[in-house]
Every structure is written in structure tokens, then in C-alpha cells.
Write a structure and sequence with these properties.
By secondary structure, the chain is mainly alpha-helical. The chain is built from 31 helices and four strands. It has helices at residues 11-28, 36-41, 48-60, 67-84, 91-116, 127-161, 165-172, 176-197, 207-214, 240-255, 259-287, 292-304, 307-312, 317-337, 346-362, 364-380, 385-411, 423-436, 442-449, 454-460, 467-470, 479-495, 497-506, 529-535, 537-540, 545-550, 557-572, 585-602, 605-610, 612-622, 630-648, and strands spanning 202-203, 234-235, 314-315, 413-414. The strands form two sheets. Strands 1-3 form a two-stranded parallel sheet. A two-stranded parallel ribbon has the order 2-4. Helix 4 (67-84) packs across helix 6 (127-161), helix 8 runs parallel beside helix 12 (292-304) and helix 18 (423-436) crosses helix 23. Residues 160-172 have low confidence and may be disordered.
Length: 655
């Protein structure tokens, strides 16, 4: 598509100027720290218009350091709409782009509101502030609308220009093995410096809990199990299979008198598995006709943006789950790329059974993701019903009846209580009690107290973290107690629904709000056993110091300066635009939405269904106990470059 800047009518130039001014001013509005009373006192003439102009002026003043930025943005929006007004758009394009742009503007406002306050009440406290809110949202809606319309038109134009592209491209295409080995080699060369300088890797703080379980020391999780915890050695809150797998290498390190070697061997194998998986992913997309130039960009992103090598050497359950999800998605792409014919391949079915089982064993959420995808496949590939049933039902049965039903009891693995599924409900109840405790009846108090510690949850309420409230969950609660609790929960929600909505948003906004200030999620430290003992009071009196010393993992002295330099570099990338997008859960979600929008624009419904598992991961994040956590949404992050490549790269219509 040749981008034109030739508005179809001269008056559209005026429209573009008005839109650019309106949108830029709206995006520049600050919704914080506006003292309306002080502004009103200084006004000599009083009218609604004068009041609003004064408040608007105050909201966009004091931001001199960003004047140049917003001037550039204004010019960009002007040029953007000059391009938009140079083309005609179908009703489908306008409606779909408008709906997505409205969602973008609302999510942006929600992010600003809840990242500063735990309620939107502060931002709705006055009719003038409400007008600022509307202008702010409208500014971002117009900006997003222009972007989505332009992208949609570029995609359609690119399709029309390349009608004979596939045949010529297919003749020059490298074979699958060539692409695989080339991608794997490039990624290995780019990732090795991270592995060497950060050897033996990075350890997530929660993993120390798995080490204690591995050597049969009691942990705080035993009080949260469905059983009494006395005869339980492990909690599947941290994946049992991952604990045993990594435990094998830890014990090797202990035998070598350096536990760090055990971690180093494991992180190298995990990094290698990630490299193989990403190379397979890119080779698979190439096989199904994705443009090689776009794939080179995706390869560049995987190889050079630190989030990918850093997670490949992260010791923790989420990195392991993301790895299994990566291999699962490769198989999903093969299934839809061959329109289900791959189910006739016995080798593929065998690999699918193993991968699906590991996905479910790697994290509790894996079971839900795979079961939903299983139902989708049964419906979508009805003519392969028997094949789908065998290859996808078998791993579910093996996981549920053999792994959980037989192996767990033998190995003394406990399953966590209902609290892990009820973060949203518990947060809503805690918020209600914090603000409306006087309205709680004695019967309601008793019903809540049989499930949660009523006296504590109001004070423990943290808008962005459900763990403090969940810790008060009583494992002795029966099904009757839970039913009574849900009855009270519903009654309270009907009484104050806004509080429930705000509780949900406060605990989830960072997963869908496109804020550019979020910079959490990279794990760069070796959270050693000594560190764990210092930061966890319950460890001090229960775990012997000799065990802590024996299992403590530290970076070699020779690498400490190099490690510090690399960590500093990685932290600097927090502030580099585009690169830091993949550290940001909200931006990751909107990149995913962008890809779905492109599929929708091209009417590639098969591709939309192919990437539904990424949408399921996003849905699980909305039910998670912690807001703004990259490791929860990392399975989606790991697939984003490939998904965008599949969206923006041409697909072979013969497949």
C-alpha cells in the first residue's frame, strides 16, 4: 500500500487540525492535584465556562518538560488524520476501529485513576472534573481511532498489492530445518552473554519455598492445604513436577559441593528449551506462509529484547509454565495451519499428549486453558472428532486420575484450598467490610467469619494484592459455609455494586490499562536461601542455619561486577520506548488486541481462534491475586512477537 496524504476534500484539512488540537489537549490533561476551591476563589467573573477554562488551564500547566513531546504528538495526529481522510473506509472498518478505540480510551482513564487512587470517586468529584475526564478519554479515543483505521487500511492495501505474492514467495522459501537452525543459532549467540554474566541465573523469591518442600521442611503453605498438612510434604501451589525436576539438579550441585552448579545446569537446559521452542515457532510460521521480512523482525525482537533471555534463565514455576505454553501454542498453530489434518499424524498426537500433560502439571491454570481449547477443537474439527478426542482427552484423564488422583497421594502432595480461586470475591468482601462495616449484620458477619477472619480482612485489604486477605482463609470451611458466604457476598454486592466493581478494577487495571509508566516484572536477583530467611519471619525459627548455608546459591565473585553491569543495563531498558512495552502487562494486552483487530480486519477467523489461548491467559490474570505482575502474563508476552508476525505477515491462502 502506498500511503497517500491527499484529503478527498479541502475542508478535511480543517477537520484534521481540529481533531489534532482537541486530541492533543485532551491527552495532555492532568486529572490529579487540581484544587478546585482555590481556583474558584481567584476568579473575578463566574460562569460555568469560565470555571471550566480555569480548571483546564490549571490541569495542563506546569508540564513544560513535555511541551515538545505533545507538540510532536499534535503534528503526528494531524498527519495521521490527513492520511485517514485520503481514503474511504467500509462500515465494518469504522465500527470495529471505533469500538476498539473507545475501549482503549476508557482503559487509559481507568489506569490513570486507579494507579493513583483505589477508587474513581476522586476523579468524579465535580462536574468540571467529569468534563475533563470526558475530554481526556475522547482525546485518546481519537488518537487510537486514527491508528486502528490506518492499520486496517494498510493491511487491506497490502493484501491487494500482493495477490501473486505467495506463489513467488513459496518458490524462494527456505526449508523448515534451515529456518529452525538459523533462528536457534542467532538467538543462542544473543542470549549467551546473559547466561554467562548472570550465571547461574535469576531465582524468584517464591522458589525457596519449593526448596524447603524438596527437603521435607514444613512451610507456611501447609496451613493453607485442604488437609491438615501434617502428613503432607508438598503443596501443588508450586508445581510438584517442577519442584522434582529442579530438585534433581539441585542435588547434583550439592554432590559437587557447589549448589550453584545445579542451578546453572538447569538454567542452561531451560534456556536451550526456550531457544528451540522459539526457533520452532518461527520456522512453523514460515512454513505456513508468514512474510519472511516480518519474521526477521520477530527474530530480532526475540534475540535482542532482554525480557526473553532473562525469563529463560529464571528459576521459578511461571518461567516453566510459559515454556510449556510456548510448545503448546506451536502445536495449536500446526492444528489450525493444517485445518485439523495433523490429527492423522500419530507422532504429532503423541507429542500433543505429552505437551498437554506438562502444560497442566506446570500450573493449575494450564488445566483450564487446555480444557477450553479442547472444547473449541471438538466443535471446530467435528469431522476429526475421534482423533481430537483421543489426542486431547487422554492427557486430561492422565493428569486428573493418574497424576493428581494416584501420584499425589503416594508422594504426599497436598492441593491448596478454595482461596486460590476466589481472589476476586475475597477482595470484594474485604473492601466492603473496610468501608461499610457498620452495615454488616450479625448473620452476615458469622457467615463471613466461617470462611475468612472477619476481624482482620478489613485492615488487611490491599487494593492490588489479594494474598493478605487470602491468608485468613479457614481451610476448615465446609461446602455449606462457602454457600452461605456466597449468599452474603451476593447480597452485599447488590447493595453496593460500585464497591465490588472498584475492588475488581483496583486489583486488575494494570493488565489492560495502556500505561507507559509500568516497569515491573523483570527478575534479576539471586534470591538466595539466606535472603529468604532474613525476609520471612516464619523461617527463622523452623529452618536450621546449616541447611540454609548448604543450599544457598550465590554468584561467583569474578562475575559480580559483570552481573551488576548487566543488571544496570537491563534496568535502563525500562526507560527505552518500544523495548519497555514488553515489560508492561497492559501494553502486552493491547498488542494482543491489535493482532486480533488485524485478523478481524482481514476476516481471518481461523487465526483468531488459533490465538484464543492467549486471550485465556489474559482472562486468568484478571482472576489472579496480584495486579501488575509480568510473570503471570508472560506466556502471552512470549507469544506476542509471533502473533504480530502472523497478523501483519501475509498468510498462504492455499493452506
Amino acid at each position: 500500500m502506498n500511503i497517500l496524504i491527499k484529503p478527498r476534500k479541502n475542508r478535511y484539512i480543517i477537520y484534521a487540525i481540529i481533531i489534532a488540537l482537541f486530541s492533543t489537549i485532551g491527552m495532555q490533561i492532568s486529572l490529579l492535584n487540581i484544587n478546585i476551591e482555590q481556583i474558584f476563589k481567584r476568579l473575578e467573573y463566574r460562569s460555568m465556562l469560565i470555571y471550566f477554562i480555569a480548571i483546564l488551564k490549571k490541569s495542563i500547566s506546569g508540564k513544560g518538560e513535555t511541551d515538545l513531546l505533545y507538540s510532536i504528538i499534535g503534528c503526528g495526529i494531524f498527519l495521521l488524520f490527513l492520511i485517514i481522510f485520503s481514503y474511504k473506509f467500509s462500515k465494518r472498518e469504522i465500527v470495529s476501529a471505533t469500538c476498539l478505540a473507545i475501549l482503549f480510551g476508557i482503559c487509559r482513564w481507568i489506569g490513570v485513576a486507579f494507579s493513583h487512587k483505589e477508587s474513581w470517586g476522586y476523579f468524579l468529584r465535580n462536574k468540571y472534573i467529569v468534563l475533563l475526564d470526558i475530554w481526556y478519554i475522547a482525546g485518546y479515543i481519537l488518537f487510537a481511532l486514527g491508528i486502528f483505521l490506518l492499520i486496517g487500511k494498510m493491511i487491506i492495501g497490502y493484501q491487494k498489492k500482493n495477490k501473486n505474492f505467495f506463489k513467488a514467495k513459496h518458490e524462494k522459501m527456505y526449508d523448515f530445518k534451515h529456518i529452525f537452525f538459523l533462528c536457534a543459532l542467532i538467538i543462542l549467540v544473543c542470549w549467551l552473554p546473559y547466561y554467562v554474566s548472570l550465571w547461574p541465573g535469576a531465582i524468584h523469591g517464591d522458589f525457596s519455598m519449593q526448596v524447603l518442600q524438596l527437603f521435607h521442611y514444613p512451610t507456611i503453605l501447609q496451613g493453607q492445604l485442604t488437609s491438615d498438612g501434617i502428613n503432607i510434604l508438598y503443596s501443588n501451589d508450586h508445581p510438584f513436577i517442577h519442584t522434582q525436576m529442579l530438585g534433581f539438579f539441585i542435588k547434583i550441585g550439592i554432590r559437587l559441593k557447589h549448589v550453584s552448579w545445579g542451578y546453572g545446569i538447569y538454567t542452561f537446559l531451560q534456556m536451550s528449551a526456550y531457544i528451540i521452542g522459539i526457533a520452532l515457532l518461527l520456522a512453523t510460521l514460515n512454513k505456513f506462509g508468514v512474510d519472511q521480512l516480518i519474521l526477521k523482525v520477530a527474530l530480532f525482537i526475540y534475540a535482542l529484547i532482554p525480557v526473553f533471555p532473562l525469563y529463560s534463565i529464571l528459576v521459578g514455576g511461571d518461567a516453566f509454565f510459559s515454556l510449556m505454553f510456548l510448545y503448546f501454542m506451536i502445536e495449536v498453530i500446526w492444528i489450525f495451519g493444517t485445518k485439523g489434518k495433523i490429527f492423522y499424524n500419530k507422532k504429532f498426537n503423541g507429542i500433543m499428549i505429552i505437551t498437554a500433560f506438562l502444560l497442566m502439571a506446570a500450573k493449575n491454570q494450564g488445566l483450564y486453558v487446555f480444557c477450553i481449547f479442547f472444547i473449541i477443537c471438538l466443535i471446530y474439527f467435528r469431522k476429526y472428532f475421534r482423533k481430537v478426542l483421543i489426542s486431547m482427552l487422554v492427557p486430561i484423564l492422565c493428569f486428573q486420575f493418574i497424576y493428581v488422583g494416584m501420584i499425589f497421594p503416594i508422594c504426599k502432595v497436598g492441593v491448596v484450598g478454595e482461596q486460590e480461586k476466589l481472589s476476586v470475591c475475597f477482595q470484594q468482601t474485604a473492601r466492603y467490610i473496610k468501608y461499610y462495616k457498620d452495615e454488616v449484620t450479625k448473620e452476615e458477619k458469622n457467615a463471613i467469619n466461617k470462611v475468612l477472619d472477619y476481624e482482620k480482612i478489613g485492615n488487611k485489604y490491599n487494593p492490588e494484592l489479594a494474598d493478605p486477605v487470602k491468608e485468613t482463609y479457614k481451610t476448615s470451611a465446609t461446602s455449606t459455609d462457602l454457600n452461605n458466604y456466597f449468599s452474603v457476598w451476593l447480597k452485599m454486592g447488590l447493595k453496593h455494586p460500585v464497591e465490588y466493581i472498584e475492588a475488581f478494577i483496583a486489583n486488575t487495571y494494570a493488565y489492560y490499562a495502556p500505561l507507559l509508566t509500568t516497569n515491573r516484572g523483570l527478575y534479576l536477583k539471586l534470591n538466595s536461601m539466606k535472603f529468604y530467611k532474613k525476609t520471612r519471619p516464619w523461617v527463622k525459627d523452623t529452618i536450621p542455619q546449616t541447611f540454609i548455608n548448604k543450599n544457598n546459591c550465590e554468584s561467583p565473585r569474578r562475575l559480580k561486577k559483570i552481573r551488576k553491569t548487566v543488571i544496570t543495563f537491563c534496568k535502563l531498558t525500562y526507560h527505552i520506548p518500544v523495548i519497555n512495552w514488553l515489560y508492561n502487562p497492559g501494553i502486552i494486552t493491547w498488542l494482543m488486541f491489535m493482532a486480533f483487530f488485524v485478523f478481524w480486519t482481514r476476516k481471518e477467523y481461523d487465526s483468531m481462534i488459533t490465538f484464543i489461548p492467549l486471550l485465556l491467559i489474559f482472562g486468568i490474570c484478571l482472576l489472579s491475586p496480584k495486579n501488575n505482575n509480568l510473570r503471570y502474563i508472560y506466556p502471552t508476552c512470549c507469544m506476542i512477537p509471533a502473533m504480530l508476525a502472523a497478523a501483519f505477515g501475509e498468510k498462504n491462502p492455499d493452506l
